[in-house]
Amino acid sequence: MEPLVKLSGIIKQFPNVVALKEVDFSLREGEVHSLVGENGAGKSTLMNVLYGVIQPDRGDIFIRGEKQHFHSARDAMNLGIGMVHQEFMLAPTMTVLENIILGFEPTKRSVLDYDLAYEQITELSREYGLAVRPESKIMDNSVGEAQRVEILKALYRGAEVLILDEPTAVLTPQETDELFRVIASLKQHGKTVIFISHKLQEVMEISDRITVMRDGKVQGTLDVADATKEKLAVLMVGREVFLNIKAASTKAGPVVLDVRGISARGRRKLSELTDVSFQVRAGEILGIAGVDGNGQSELVEALTGLGRVDQGEILISGTPITNLSPGQIRKKRVAHIPEDRNTSGLCKEMTIGENLIAITLDQPPLSKHGVIRSREVNELAAKLVKEYDIRPANHRIRTANLSGGNKQKVIVAREVSEDADLLIAAHPTRGVDIGSIEFIRSILLAQREQGKAILLVSADLEEIMSLSDRIAVMYEGKIMGIVPAAEANERVLGLMMAGATYDEATQGKGDEVIEA
Amino acid sequence: MKPSILDRLSKLQSPINVLAAVLLGLVIGTALMAIQGHNIIEAYTALFNGAFNGRFNFGGTLERFVPLLLSGLAFAVASQASVFNVGVEGQLYFGAIVAAYFGYVIVGLPSVLHVALVLLLAGLAGAIWAFIPGFLRATWRVNEVCTTIMLNYVAIFFTSYIVNHVFKNPNIGVPQTPTIQDSARLARIMMPSRANTGIFIALGMVVFFIWLMDYTTIGYKIKAVGFNAHFATYVGFRSRWIMIGTMALSGLIGGITGAMQVIGIHGYFLDNFSVGYGFDGIMVALLARNNLKAIPFVAFFLAVLKSGAIGMERFTGIPRELIGIMEAVIILFAAAEALIVIRKRVSLGKGGAEVV
């Protein structure tokens, strides 16, 4: 069968880098084809070539066997190719309906025909199960809704091939499930979908075929039946990756963090902390699992001094730190990898080096009597950049220019090198590439080996289960129970994340425990 | 990888824009002169002479340079923490009246000590005056632009009351304070102009603040708060107090600006004496893009224009307001962030090609 889309020998060079090195890619009609690879592998560039946004230096594009030359996205659209970018291209102050028809407005006697447009859109939305509110403004829509609008927009323009660029990066798990249903229905209607992601789990779940890219080259295309996560990871990274190894559990030492019945106001009703208690010992990782927005952020803020505690007490190695300032809590040897690396974790206007020294600046040898000693600062920065494999390996570069994984490595390097007793890591690997995930996880485990107490907050159950010694599940601002990792499985944790206590979750199901 | 010419140019983006703005301002100003039938060469010669020719003229330029330099520095320092101190004018009035008072009442101190004391107290007055909007901003997010502008009026009218009713030189009809002691005066350096040793103090302060911002932990913290207050708080800095402190530092410079006019130029506080020095400072900082190292050059350029304008008016009859128009045009263009846009290459690290 002739492929619907065939890209052959695509070469694209950007100043200083070759983004695509002779890439071949083909797409069968009606399939869901995933494109995976680390950040910077060239996935988005390749798709932008197919969508006509980027013109390749060399190579050909064939649509149904016919050679095409795209001058702009309009040419691609006319041939039935639609793309939903990672950053939505929507006008926030206009309605859903207006956004969808923008540029392709139906007219009746050269007057905009809203009624027809409304009809067409509701028809499309029913057909594909894409629930939207045509009259609402984009700015009043959730991220998931906005994404559906983008998909509808592409369909409205007559897309047969839909390119979804990392669509799940911005979605909650529930929204992701819904998106997968939409993709399934698109496929049912004979549409072809290209799904870009670096989350292997998702890719395995919805694809027919998977193409892996690395360093601007295609490493291989696999049928989903032949693919395993391990195989894909090897193709992506170019070597074996160990995401799930865990060193044998060491003996936990004395209690470092002691949280006693704290309550705190939340951003929403559901995230209000009520009577939260737990302990973290030296040399252990306590994982906090839970669906995002169930009080995890508030908990971390309370522990680090960024938020206020209304009731209860927090102790670090026996000394109370309740409601102290972030600076005072850091002095009690607490390090913190924040959930939001772009606003809190890094100062993007500053260089890698300046970011690395932020918390140790006041101590010798970095400064003396308030005067910064540049030589020591540069030495330390260069050392950390090397040790933590931060790329590009130049600490004089502004962090704004780094990829997500490298930004996160800067933060991890700063917080871990401080040599604190307690490390609070909130979503340390969210949205970073697989190589960095592996690296960051290995650092957390190494910290545990060194006898640090680690509190790991993550919405990624797999991460929680593979790293933690004990797992606490949060639901609506409460701890539903703390489970030793050996006794935890996805089902029990999942039930607890939905509001069951440990006993309820295990009752009557003790004998049919499914393997994790 | 080697930085390309474009990469290097993009680092010069803002200086190039400022130069372009200045050139455009000059072109438009010159065009206006030409339209009115003035001889352009004559005009510029007169402008040049007015600014540089002879001790009196050059001294006049230096005399104008000092307040421009200091008030520009005051505004730029506050900007490092992302606070906008539009209240330099008010801080300057407070500094001036305090300088006039202590310059007069303290008798018998050696000159160096007296000058230092007066400057310190004046700076303190300015700092306290700036503390108020700083505190309001950092604590309750009261917009500092509004509060500083309003506090300017309070300062101007309050000092006006003092000089009219409380601390007035009884021998003179105009509202001014008694002349300060000789020990509090700054020495003239270019008689017969009023240029004085204050210029060295001012330049010294610029050097000090450049050092403070670039080489000390305090400077690092101020910049961190200015760039990203969330980050600063998260890494453990006391963002609120850093913001307030920076505002106070800015006010300190503002107060000293006022004191310099009293002890360097007039010898007393005169009701309503400032011709908008504080606001000129905003112009200086804007043109210098809040870069402390650029402030002396910008301040000097504007001092030349201001001082040359007087000479030009005197010898060619071109009204000095024309130079005012020129300044306004320059500011207008300088405020347009992207007059000339140098496209920066997307330079990414190894393997980083995920452009778009």
Q: Can you offer a commentary on this structure?
A:
The complex is a heterodimer of chains A (516) and B (356). Chain A is of the alpha/beta class. Chain A folds into 2 domains: 5-237, Rossmann fold, CATH 3.40.50.300; 255-333 and 420-509, 3-Layer(aba) Sandwich (Rossmann fold), CATH 3.40.50.300. In chain A, β4 (58-63) and β5 (66-68) form a beta hairpin. In chain A, α14 runs parallel beside α15. Chain A starts with a strand and ends in a 10-residue tail after the last helix. Chain B has one domain: ABC transporter involved in vitamin B12 uptake, BtuC (Orthogonal Bundle). The interface between A and B is large, with 55 and 32 residues.
Output the keywords:
heterodimer; A: 516 residues; alpha/beta; six-stranded mixed β-sheet; globular; disordered C terminus; B: 356 residues; mainly alpha
**How many DSSP-defined strands of chain B?**
0
Largest interface: A-B, 55 and 32 residues
Taken together, the total number of domains of chain B comes to 1
| Contiguous helical run count of chain A | 18
Fraction of helical residues of chain B: over 70%
What is the oligomeric state here?
Answer: heterodimer
Proper CATH architecture of chain B: Orthogonal Bundle
Strand order of the largest sheet of chain A: 6-9-10-3-11-12
Distance from N terminus to C terminus of chain A (CA atoms, Å) equals 40 Å
Would you tell me which CATH topology of chain B applies? Answer: ABC transporter involved in vitamin B12 uptake, BtuC
CATH class of chain B: Mainly Alpha
Largest β sheet strand count, sense and barrel closure of chain A: 6 strands, mixed
Note the run of SSEs of chain B as H and E: HHHHHHHHHHHHHH
Residues in β-strands, percent of chain B: under 5%
Q: Uncertain spans of chain A, ≥5 residues at pLDDT below 50?
A: 508-516
- The value of Rg of chain B in angstroms is 22 Å
CATH architecture of the largest domain in chain A: 3-Layer(aba) Sandwich
Strand content of chain A: 25-35%
Residue-averaged pLDDT of chain A, rounded? Answer: 88
Find the CATH superfamily of the largest domain in chain A.
Answer: P-loop containing nucleotide triphosphate hydrolases
